[in-house]
Queue: 2 jobs
Job 1
Amino acid sequence: MEKLIAVIKRELGIWSRRPIYMAGSVGVMACCCIFYLSFLEEGVPSDLPIGIVDNDNSSMSRNFIQQLDATQLGRVVMYNDFAEAREDMQRGDITSVCVIPHGMYADVQAQRQPTFTFYVNTLYFLGGSLSYKDILTLVNLTSGAVTRQVMRMKGMGDAEIMGKLRPVDVDVHMIGNPTMNYGAYLANTLLPVMLEMIVIILTIYCLGTELKYGTSRELLALTGGDFHAAIGGKLLLLTGLYTLIAWTLMFLLYGIMHFPLACSIGWMLLDSFLMVIASEAVALVILSCIPVLRFALSVGALFSVLALSLTGFTLPLEAMPGPIQGIAELLPMRHYYLMAVRCGMFDGGFALCYKEILHMIVYLFAPLPVIWRLKDAYIKLDYIKK
Amino acid sequence: MKFIDYMKGWFRDFWKGFGGELRTIFSDGGVMIIFTVAGLGYPILYNYIYLNGTLDETPIAVVDDADCFESREYIRQLDATREVDIAFRCENMAQAQELMAERKVNGIVLFPSDFGEKMLRHETATLSIYADMSSFLYYKNLLMSTNMVMLDKAHSAVSVQAVPYEENIPYNRTFAYNIFLLSAIFLLVIQQVMFYGMCMVEGTKVEENRLHENRGGLRIFWARSVAYWLIFMGLGLYIACIVPAMFGLPQRGAFGDIFSLLALFVTDCVFFCMFWSTFFRRRESVFVLYLFMSPVCIFLTGFSWPASAIPGIWKVVSYFIPTTFGCRAFINMNTAGAALSSNVHLMWLLLLQTAVYMVASGYRSLRR
C-alpha cells in the first residue's frame, strides 16, 4: 500500500510539472464536448437549400414552391434554367433540384399528367436524404390535392377520398430517440469514442515516458523493485482520472443535455467505467508488445481511431465484411456501444448485457501473457532511441 | 558570375536540406508506421470496411393482428424490398419487443386488427412501425420499405396519378455509404497523415536539439517543403487515383482536373502542417493532444452534416483547415463529375489558404 501511495505521489508531482497530462485528458475531452454539443445543437438540420427551376410560372407552381419553402427542412433557391441549377447541385451548394415542367397547371387541368422531375445529390449524405424525403412528401401531397379536387367534383365524400388517396397510414415510433435528434445519436457514441482514444493514448504515453526518459529505474527504486506496484500505482491514478471524466461525460449527456435514456444512469456509469479499464488494458497490451514509446503511440493511435467506424453506430457492423466484424470485437468501444444500446435504449438490465460486461472484463486478462516484456524494458532500459 | 555562384550555392544548400529532410523522415520508425500503415494501408482497409456500401435486409418482426389478405399481401411486399427481411412473425407485441431488445430484429411492424376491414371499406388503415434508433440506417430502411409499399398501394388505389414524378439520384443511386464517405475521407487521410508525421519529426528535432537542420534561410524552407510535397504527391496519387480504381469507386473527373486539385491541396497541406508543427516541442504531444481532430475535420467539411447547418463559429474555424475546401472539391470533381471550371471558387480558396500558410510557416521557420 505504501508503495502504491509513493508511486501516486510521484506521479502527481510529474502531472503538476507537465501540463500535457491534464491537457491531453480533461482539456481534450472538454474541447470535444464543446465542439460536438455545439455543432449538433440543432438536432436535425433545417432549411436545406433546394433548387427550383419553375418552367410553369403558374399559381399552382408558386403554391408548390411556397409550401416547400415553408417546410422545416427546405429552403427554396430559384433558378432560371436547369444547367445553372445542376451545376450548383454538382458543387454541393444546393442539395437537390426540382424541375416544374412547362404548362404543368394547364396539363393538370386537362388531366394530361405532367411529369414532375427532381434530382438529389446524395454525396452530401444527410442533406441529400432529408431533402429527398421532403420533396417526395410534397410531390405526393400536391398530386393528392389535385386528385382530391377531381374526386370532390365527382361527388365523393372526404372520408372516401382519403381512403383512396392514402389507403395506408404509417404511424412511426422511434425507439431510443423519439425526436430523431442527430445530436443525441452522434454525440452519444462519438464522445465515448473520443474518451476511448484519450484513454489508450494517454495510458501508453504515461507508462511509456518512463522508458523514453529513462526514469523507470527511479520509479522501480521507489517501490523496492516491485514492478506491479509501480505500474499499479500509475494505473490506479489514471483510472481515477478517466473514470471522473467518463462519469462527468455521462452526467453531461443524460443529466444536462437530457438525451434519451431508458435505464437508470447507474448502468451507463458502469458501462463507461468498464470501457475505461478495458481500454487501459488494450493500451497495456500495445505497450508491452512494443515497449518503445514512439512506435507504441503510433500503433495505439492507428488502433483507437478504428473505433469511429467499427463501433457500427453509423453503418451497422452486419453490413461490413466478416473479418471486419471479427476485428470490431477487439475494440472496447464496440462492447460499450452494445451495452449502451441494450441498457440505454431497451432497459435490458443485466440479463441482456452480461455478455458485454464479461467481454470488457476479459480485456483485463489480456496484458497478462505479455506484461513481462514491459517489465524487462523497465528494468533493462534497452530503449531504442531511433 | 556572382549570380551563378549564388545559384550554385542555393541549389547546393537546397539539395542538402532536401536530402537531410528525406533522411530524417525515412529513418524515423514512428513516422514510417504512420506513413505506411495510415497512408498506404488505411485507404485500403476503409474501402474493405465499407465494401458493401449499403445495409440490406434489415431483420424485422411482424405482428399481424389483422391476419387478413390485405395484411399478408403487405407483408409479402415488404419482404420483397431490398431494405428489410421479415425474420420473425410474432403472436403479440411482447414477443416482438423481446426480440428487439435482444437485437435479433431492428424493427417491428404492427398491423392492427382493423387493418383489413378499413382497407376494404376504403378508409385509411393505420399500421405502426417501431424502429431501433441505435443506427439511423435501421430506421431509414424500415421507413423506406413501409413507405414504398404504402405508396404503391396509394398509386394503385387511384387509377390515374395527377402529377406523376420522376426521381433522379445521379451520383449515388442507392445512398451507398462507401461512395459518399470514402471519396471525402481520402483527402482527409492525406492531410492527417502529413500532420501527425510532420509534427512528430519537428517535435523530435526540438527534443534532440537538431533545429539547426531547419536553419539556413528560405532555401532550406523550400527544400523541406519539396521533400514533403514529393512524398505526399506520390501518396496522394495512390490514395486519390489508384485506390478508388482498385475498389471500383466512381472516378468521373478528368485526370488533369484531379491532378491539379491534388497538387494544390498537397501544397496547402505542406504549409499548413509546417506552420502548426512549429508549435510542437515534443514528438508525442501531437497524438496526445490532436488525435481527436480527424473526426472534427470530417464534420467541418460539410459533406456529412450539411454546410448550411454548421454554426457560424465552426464555419470560421473550418476556413483554416485544407480539407474543408479540398474534400468538397474532390467530391464534386471526382465523384459528381463536375468540371474544374465549376469548382474554381474552391480552388481560389485553397490557393488563398496556401498563400496564408506559406507566409506564416516561412515566417515561423525563419524565426526559430
Job 2
Amino acid sequence: MNQLINHHPASFRDPSGFIYEQNGTVYRFVSTIYASHYSLLMNSGLAAELQKKNLLLAFSEATDNHLGRADWYKTLVPQQLPFISYAWEWSFSQLKDAALATLAVCKLALQKGMILKDATHTNMQWVDGKWKLIDTLSFETYTTGESWIAYRQFCECFLNPLLVAAHTGMEVNRLLLSYPDGVPANITAKLLPFKTKFNAVVYLHVHLQAKLAAKPATEQKGSGKKLSQKNIEQILESLCSCIEGLNLPQQTTTWNNYYSETILSETYLSEKKKLISAILADESYKSVIDLGANEGEFSLLCRQDASVIATDFDSACIDSLYNRLKKEKRKNILPLVLDLTYPSPAMGWMNAERKAFFSRANADVCMALALIHHFAIAKNISFGQLASFFASICKTLIIEFVPKEDPKVQSMLQWRKDIFEEFTVEEFEKAFASFFSLQQKVTVNGSQRTIFVYRKK
Amino acid sequence: MMQLLYLDPGSGSYLVQVIIAAVLGVIFYFKSGWNWIKSFFVKTPPKEEEENESAD
C-alpha cells in the first residue's frame, strides 16, 4: 500500500495540528495539546452551529492515526476543496465578505465561550457560494479578561487593505500581494487620507494602533484594566459596521461595461453566446477555466455542475461578476483577479507555502475569448508561446482569433509600429497545430473573428 | 497560554484594545441614550433576516 504522507507545506505555524495528504485525500492532524479546545468546539455546539450557518468548512472525524505520532488526538477529514484561492486573487467585495464572515465566526464563538486565535485571509475560502473558515483549529477557549489575540492580524489582513482600497482606489489584491501577511497599521496610516483621522472608528483601529505599535510590547503592558467579554463584542461590532460601510470609489475602467459600451456589442455578443453554448453543449467536462472572463458572460454559459474559475486582470470586472454570482446564487463559478502576464507566484517559506497560480489551476476546458491579441500585440508573446501555455493547462481549448483588420486590434496598433507581420490566422493555426488537433472552426456572424475548438494532442 | 508559543506577545495589542473598548463604551453609552430618546419619536423597522443563514 502506498503510504506516501505529505505534510502540507503551508501548515506549520500552529502547534495544535496540521494538514497532510495521503493517497490523494487531505487530512487534519489534531494534537493532544489542542484536546480541551477541540472538545469545547464540539460539545458547546459551536462547530455544528457554524456549519449550519455555512461559516465553517464541513469535516468528519476519522479513527486512524496515519502518522503514528504519540501526540495524536484526532484525525479530521475536511470537505475536500478542488482549488484554493488566495487573497491576492480576490476583488474588494470578496475580501470584504471574507472579513465579515470572519467576524461573524468570532462573534458566534464568543457566545459559546471560545474565540478566534487566528484571523487571516488564508483561513477563508469561498466554498459553494459562501465564505467559510477552513481551519478547524483556529478556535481556543476564551478566558475572561483576555484581549482578542487575533485583533491585530484581523486589522492587517482585512480592515487595513479594505480601508486603503475604499479611500484611495488601490486594489486589495495588489496590496496583499505586497503584504501577504497583511498591511501593517503604520503603512495604512500613511496611505489613508488625512480626513480619516477625524473618523473615530478609523482613528482607533488604524491611526492609534500605528502610534502604539511603535512602542515596544513590554511598555504596552501594565495598564491594569481587564477587558470584559462585552468589550470584545463591542470591538467586533465596530469592526463589522466599519467594514460594512466600506465601498469602492465609483470608477469606470477600460474593461467593465465593455460589452454595454463597445461598438461590437449586441449582435456580436449574442451570436458569440449562441456559438459558445453550442460548443459547450457538445463537450463533456467537469472543470473550466475562463481566462480574460471580463464580467463572466461566457463563464455563466457553462454547465452548473462544472466548477468554473473565471479570471480577469481587471479587478472591477471580477468584483461585478462576484456580486452578480452572489445575487443569482450561482455557486459553481469562482471569480478571481489574475494578470496572465504576472500570474500569482509561489510564495512563503521555501516558496512552498502558497502555490503559484498555474500549479493549482488546470481544467478540462479552457476558454480564451478575445484574449490572445492582447498578449500577441501588447506584450509581444508569440503564438508558439501561447499554444504551449494553453497546452499545459487544459485538455480542450476554446479560443477566439481576432484578426488585424478588426477595429479593436486596429485601435491597439494606432499608436505603435506594426511589427507583427506574423499576426495572421495562418500563423496562428500553424503554431497551435503542433500542440492541438483542430475540432471546429467557426466565424462569429457579423465580425471577422473566428472561434477555434482544439483538443490537446 | 498556548498561542504565545508561536505568536509574539505584542500581537494581541492589548493596550489598543483597552483604549478602543473604553472609547466604544462611551460611544455606546451615549448612543443607547440617544436611541432611547429617539424611540419615542421614530418607529424602528423590523430587522432583516440574517443573510448567511442556510437556505438549503
